[in-house]
Specification:
The protein has 14 helices and 13 strands. It is about 35% helix and about 10% strand. The chain has a single domain, classed as 3-Layer(aba) Sandwich (Phosphatidylinositol Transfer Protein Sec14p). α1 packs across α3, α2 crosses α3 and α9 runs parallel beside α10. It has a 5-stranded mixed beta sheet with strand order 2-3-4-5-6. It has a 4-stranded antiparallel beta sheet with strand order 7-12-9-8, with helices on one face. Strands 1-13 form a two-stranded parallel sheet. By secondary structure, it is an alpha/beta fold. It is globular and about 55 Å long. This is SEC14 cytosolic factor. Pfam families: CRAL_TRIO (PF00650), CRAL_TRIO_N (PF03765).
């Protein structure tokens, strides 16, 4: 399915059920992960931090207010969340990222990359299943065993010696890794904006800026982990530095007995916030935990769900897209390669357009269109005092109305290892969902303990 560049296989023949707003037990406004700290769900201090951040960036020539603004609020908020709302720290990371993007022509890389180079990267690294979790966040799967030392060596060799795009480089970022960042561009510029425009989610007025990830390490031996150490460390550190807060949770499946040794390396590649999002699940934890976050119809069969999806193939179209997406040119699913959304019909709809190059020919073909629902005409108002207490409440309804599905509430007393990783014995009696909920509440308490001066800027 993914080996050719023709339109993806057609969507499931099953009839589409009505779009409903589905709430998971771990995605309420009382918890730190989502949507707290996102557009429409900011406390007074967080609102002030965002305004101060915009002022600092504008004063230092890295931001223009527009309209349209040079950078949207949801992007700026990613850097603020990553740096715990300390504006000057967020500025330094933002500036480093902007400098890195300019020095490596990341926009040009994404728009001009050769399809075969893109496809080689796509097949090796985290892949969008075409589905979302219960909150509307895209679900990615990553099977580590595909990254053996021979494959990585060849991947880096071709990347360093081939002209796979029109982008320049800074000579510092390993050329063999640059293709990987076309995939991050696809996440932030295609998948997340697409999921933002889909209304069948719990908070349709909140733009999607994260991803949920299943990382499958079954069948990976200690030698393979060791051989991958350098490559994975470089890739992880660059991604953490320049694509902050694009991960919601990472569920590690199939961990071998020696994984605690491997974890000792891995946790040093990430900042503490990212580390806190990683959960290691034993075999009996996988199905109940994933189902708490993801509808079974969107979980691959390999992990106890109903989705006929195999790592390596293109994303499986969701029946809920029927009646929302208008496919064109014979397409019934999204093809491989760079994709971007562009406004059409006087801003009433958005169109998916292909980019990249096939041979010497640049691609530019319209795949589909769908209604533009975000940004909504009326943004939700939020009680800032309640947000600060972790109980945000909308006071104005959005333009989108959907059917509510009742929400479960659970509590539990967690155990945790000193190193912060959530492992089998940290999730007691198979009650992974309760453990995750308590983890979120603990995270929220830590965030609230930050000094009130966190929004103060440095001139």
């Amino acid at each position: 399915m993914a080996s050719n560049l023709s339109p993806a296989a057609s969507a499931s023949g099953a009839s589409a059920s009505p779009a409903t707003r589905v709430k998971s037990a771990t995605s309420t406004t009382s918890q730190f992960g989502y949507p707290r700290g996102h557009v429409g769900y900011l406390s007074a201090d967080e609102e002030e931090a965002l305004r101060s951040f915009q002022d600092v960036l504008e004063e230092r020539g890295l931001y223009k207010r527009g309209p349209p603004a040079s950078h949207d609020d949801q992007t700026l908020l990613r850097f603020l969340r990553a740096r715990r709302w300390v504006v000057e720290d967020a500025f330094r990371q933002f500036k480093d990222t902007e400098d890195w993007r300019a020095a490596n022509s990341i926009d040009t890389l994404y728009k001009t990359i050769q399809l075969d180079a893109y496809e080689q990267s796509r097949r090796l690294y985290p892949q969008w299943t075409g589905r979302r979790d219960r909150r509307g966040i895209p679900l990615y799967v990553f099977e580590i065993r595909t990254l053996d030392s021979k494959t990585i060596s060849e991947y880096e060799r071709l990347g360093s010696k081939s002209t796979f795009s029109q982008a320049k480089t800074d000579g510092k970022t390993p050329p063999g890794l640059l293709r990987l960042f076309a995939l991050y561009e696809n996440l932030t510029r295609f998948t997340q904006p697409f999921c933002t425009q889909l209304a069948d989610r719990e908070h349709p007025a909140v733009p999607i800026t994260m991803s949920t990830n299943i990382v499958d390490i079954q069948g990976v031996g200690l030698t393979q982990f060791w051989n991958l150490k350098g490559h994975m460390q470089a890739a992880s550190q660059l991604a953490t530095a320049h694509y902050p807060e694009t991960l919601d949770r990472i569920f590690i499946i199939g961990a071998p007995m020696f994984f605690s040794t491997v974890w000792g390396w891995i946790k040093r590649w990430f900042d503490p916030i990212t580390v806190s999002k990683i959960f290691v699940l034993s075999a009996h934890e996988v199905k109940p935990t994933l189902e708490a976050f993801i509808d079974p119809c969107n979980i691959p069969k390999k992990y106890g769900g109903e989705l006929d999806y195999t790592f390596g193939q293109l994303g499986v179209p969701d029946p809920h897209w029927e009646g929302v997406i208008d496919w064109e040119e014979g397409f019934t699913g999204f093809p491989t390669g760079p994709l971007l959304w562009e406004e059409v019909d006087d801003g009433k709809r958005v169109a998916c357009v292909t980019y990249g190059s096939k041979g010497d020919e640049p691609r530019r073909q319209r795949i589909c269109t769908l209604p533009k629902i975000w940004p909504a005409t009326a943004a939700p108002e939020v009680d800032a005092e309640n947000v600060a207490e972790g109980t945000a409440t909308k006071t104005t309804s959005t333009a989108v109305t959907m059917t509510d599905v009742s929400e479960a509430t659970q509590t539990a007393e967690p155990k945790a290892h000193d190193d912060g990783v959530q492992t089998d014995d940290a999730i007691t009696n198979g009650d992974a969902v309760k453990k995750l909920q308590m983890h979120d509440e603990k995270h929220a308490e830590a965030a609230n303990s930050a000094p009130p001066a966190l929004a103060t800027t440095v001139a």
